[in-house]
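Researcher: Here's the sequence for the chain we discussed earlier.
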Amino acid sequence: MKILILTRRFRSYQSEADEHDFYLNKKILEKLQIDYKLTSIKIDLALNYEKYLNWRPDFVLFLGFDPINLKIKNSFLNSKFALWAKCYSSSKKNEFKKFYEELDFIFDSCYLNILKEKKNYFYLPTAIHDNFKYKFFKQIYLSCYQKTLLNQVNKVDVIFSGSPRFNRKDNYRQNLINLLIKRDIKVLICAPKKLWKKSNFNIDKNFEKNLFFSNHNYWATSEIYEKSKFVLDLPWLDTIIPELEEKFDPQFALGWNVFRSGFHGSNLISYDCDMNRNIGLNETNCSFYKSSINDLPKLADEIEQIIKNVDKKKIEYKKLKIKKNFTENHTYFHRWNFIISKLSIN
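Model: Thanks. This is the structure I predict for it:
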């Protein structure tokens, strides 16, 4: 069997949670080709599809949805087709309805879906690359800050590694962090500082002493996740889905932060919802808040109670449990193995 993976974008060594990391995906697929005794598995950018027309793959799998997939599908006359993507938005559009109907397999990384009744449909969220390393110069850069970063981590109660969510008008992340620092909770934001400074993030001067930005001006590293007292996860993403927003429901798709937090064994605080419990989060490995962002003061109260009333004896146990869950169940090797296992027996 010959399988061709066509990806909508090329990225490399950006994050261990990146489903589009070309070289790490390629290494996984090379191993699976041997494990499944397949003729060949190739991966390339979707824009380069024409050079594989004469190769005549048995299966073409699109990694990420792009309108060009329709043209590509019509060009491979004797192949079967599969898609791994966030399918919700594109599958609702009439111009793509036929495309979705004719797919042989759908692997959907959206928890919110309307295709679950379709044959050979599978919910398959993103994951973590367990062999990820930053590029050499990024490693050198981060190593220069390691000691000062761990000093910062030791001085704060909770870290948050994430953007301010520019597409959202509610500024919920900025407002929530303001509420937390007013409750005398010390917060370390791990992200490029300039992103937050240009995002209507107005800090009360009386509480500036409780807010810190990571010295390396970047996202949390594995050491930060591992050493932090608490890691805050806020799963309301930039993607605005009206039917979810009306209920302040974040269950569209999982973000990178929860996978990075879990894999690196952090003491995670996240929202209690089916989407999180579906990937194995529970009271043994995670601290849950139940309030939504429609009541930020109540949400801040819950987070404060978790941080200030934690049973310190249970922290290391929770960290071991969450790391075990993500290591055993949520790597990209597991995801690609699942996909190839389905395609290879069809």
